[in-house]
């Protein structure tokens, strides 16, 4: 009977493992999230280019290589890490949730200032007003018009 209890207790301890052990050569989720964050930023930068002539896949690969060089990682090591996290969805969920939190914090710090709308950059000179184009014609004084009306045609 005691052997059965010991075996049951042993299976319980093995079954209640804290999670999958991360093998040597694989980054822990806390470090992987920063590399993934930088990769997402590089991808966004490559996608949001105003230059339509630029070759986007080439630019994207260049930015990815820059991110990996910044984190001192090769493409093979990165692929190995990604494959490990894809095969362990519980760890991948931790990384993706932390990325989502980082994105929420990043957007919360962005402060959008309202832009002033300028309608006219040059102030009008109110003392020297221009006449309307219809009113700008030079008309004879009213007295001359009245005098012309009083004259009789010959």
Automatic annotation (TrEMBL):
Residues 23-101 form the DUF4296 domain. InterPro entries: DUF4296. This is DUF4296 domain-containing protein. It comes from Paraflavisolibacter caeni.
């Amino acid at each position: 009977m005691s052997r059965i209890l010991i075996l049951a207790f042993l299976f319980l301890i093995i079954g209640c493992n804290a999670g999958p052990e991360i093998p040597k050569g694989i980054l822990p989720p806390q470090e992987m999230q920063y590399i993934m964050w930088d990769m997402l930023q590089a991808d966004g930068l490559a996608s949001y280019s105003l230059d339509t002539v630029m070759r986007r896949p080439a630019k994207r690969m260049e930015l990815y290589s820059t991110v990996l060089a910044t984190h001192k990682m090769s493409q093979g090591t990165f692929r190995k890490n990604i494959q490990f996290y894809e095969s362990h969805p519980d760890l991948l969920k931790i990384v993706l949730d932390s990325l989502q939190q980082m994105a929420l914090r990043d957007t919360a710090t962005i402060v959008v200032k309202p832009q002033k709308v300028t309608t006219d950059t040059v102030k009008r000179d109110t003392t020297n007003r221009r006449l309307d184009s219809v009113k700008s014609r030079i008309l004879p004084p009213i007295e001359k018009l009245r005098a012309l009306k009083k004259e009789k045609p010959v």
